[in-house]
Amino acid sequence: MSVWQLVAVGLVMLLGLVGVLLPGVPGQAIVWAAVLWWALTDMTPAAWGVLIGATGLMLLNQALKPLLPPRRPGESGAPRRTLMIGGVAGIVGFFVVPVVGGVLGYVGAIFGAERLRLGSRGAAWTSVRSVMRATGYAVLVELFCCLLVAGAWLGTVLWG
Question: A Pfam family for this UniProt protein (predicted)?
Fold first, then answer.
């Protein structure tokens, strides 16, 4: 697979990660489709292993979705900008501090944005709890699954 094709797969995967943060956009399906595209083009055992792992993880996420609270961003009281900041920080945090950085970045950025917006620590934590109840758990689990798939793909491309 050429470098340009790998870059294109990476950009599609990044589009899927951002799509997880936007209601109505099938971000998880986009990430999985990018892995499928790569595996069908690369045809190595490592590529097929990542595809099989990604498929299993995405199916597990779909099975867990009914158990999580539904996404209702309007009920959290936080502006959509705060949720986007949290999502972007979660994506960046995942790659800066592998695995746990995604959760820390998401929650930390929401707290920071709400602290700036509301002015007090107590109000910011109340808002973080509200955001996590309204949208956070479902978004965080889906984003984490997609980040694990993206990390597995990136690791296989770089070191595979």
Answer: DUF456
